[in-house]
Amino acid sequence: MGASARPHGFFYFPIYKRPGGRQGPSAFFSQPRLPQEKEKREEKMMKSYIGKVVRGIDLSEDEMMEAMNMMISGAASPAQAGALLTGLRVKGETV
Fold first, then answer.
1. Which residue in 4, 9, 29, 72 has a CA-CA distance of 20 to 30 Å to 62?
2. Which residues are CB-neighbours of 47 under 8 A, at least 6 positions away?
């Protein structure tokens, strides 16, 4: 294959550019999320994590990582962070 030859076949995806900076095949199939939608999704996730902990259900490693990332980044409110940490303390540690 020469320097100017383009690959063809199953795994070849031409680059499509869409206004707004999105490119590739996903530019036509997914819509950019609005910041409000992301905040609502994160709030729902944090509420579900708090609910699980209050009911005594252990969070998975991925759920705990996401919850901690939300607290560190400031996506979770101080009240949510406090509720989750208090719930974890009351529930007790899991090995």
1. 29
2. 80
